[in-house]
């Protein structure tokens, strides 16, 4: 089944941002404050994306370390990675999903950083793109089924 007439804006998630020199302890705090984001955008002094902290890899690095306290004091740039995929807000969802699926298997499920011009608009989760792809599109002449609505 194909995509309905949705765009990326409908499934975009807010993404917290932090600067390169901030400590990893701040990243940990942001993760608890924004659990659904899946990642943190690391930006330079003028707000341009410099990297990404992906929650699951960050926690794996922290918990597998013998010196978590030391890592939490390090600047976030020491634990960030380059975004594995950056999309534009105007991109078509099916194209973004296709690019995401063509990444290295380790990065395939990473959130996608979405830009609106020079500004970070948010992040996309691959599961949200997949759900959008399989969601049936209702036309104006179709009626929604009777019952409880969420």
What does this structure look like?
Helix 4 links the parallel strand 4 and strand 5. Strands 1-2-3 form a 3-stranded mixed β-sheet. Helix 4 crosses helix 5. It is 29% helix and 19% strand. It is of the alpha/beta class and 150 residues long. It is globular, with a radius of gyration of 18 Å. It is built from 5 helices and 6 strands. The N terminus and C terminus are likely disordered.
H/E series: EHEEHHEHEEH
For the largest beta-sheet, the strand count, sense and barrel status come to: 3 strands, mixed
The overall pLDDT average reads 85
Low-confidence stretches: 1-5, 144-150
Distance between the termini: 23 Å
Helix count equals 5
Which strand-content bin applies to the residues?
15-25%
Strand order of the largest sheet: 1-2-3
DSSP helix fraction? 25-40%
Q: Per the principal axes of the C-alpha atoms, what is the gross shape?
A: globular
Content-based structural category: alpha/beta
Number of strands: 6
Q: Radius of gyration from the CA trace? A: 18 Å
Short characterization:
This protein has helices at 24-33, 55-64, 68-73, 93-101, 126-134, and strands at 17-19, 39-43, 49-54, 86-88, 112-116, 119-124. The chain has 150 residues and is an alpha/beta fold.
Features:
150 residues; alpha/beta; three-stranded mixed beta sheet; 5 helices; globular; disordered N terminus; disordered C terminus
List the helices and strands and how they pair.
Blueprint: E1 17-19, H1 24-33, E2 39-43, E3 49-54, H2 55-64, H3 68-73, E4 86-88, H4 93-101, E5 112-116, E6 119-124, H5 126-134
Parallel strand pairs: 1-2, 4-5
Antiparallel strand pairs: 2-3, 5-6
């Amino acid at each position: 089944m194909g995509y309905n007439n949705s765009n990326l804006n409908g499934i975009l998630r807010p993404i917290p941002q932090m600067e390169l020199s901030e400590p990893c302890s701040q990243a940990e705090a942001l993760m608890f404050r924004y659990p659904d984001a899946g990642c943190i955008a690391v930006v330079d002094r003028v707000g341009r994306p410099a990297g990404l902290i992906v929650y699951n890899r960050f926690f794996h690095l922290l918990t597998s370390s013998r010196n978590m306290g030391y890592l939490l004091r390090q600047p976030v740039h020491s634990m960030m990675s380059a975004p594995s995929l950056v999309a534009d807000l105007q991109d078509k969802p099916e194209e973004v999903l296709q690019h995401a699926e063509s990444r290295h298997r380790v990065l395939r499920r990473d959130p996608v950083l979405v830009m609106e011009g020079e500004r970070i608009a948010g992040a996309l989760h691959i599961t949200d793109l997949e759900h959008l792809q399989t969601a049936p599109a209702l036309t104006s002449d179709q009626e929604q089924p009777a019952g409880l609505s969420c």
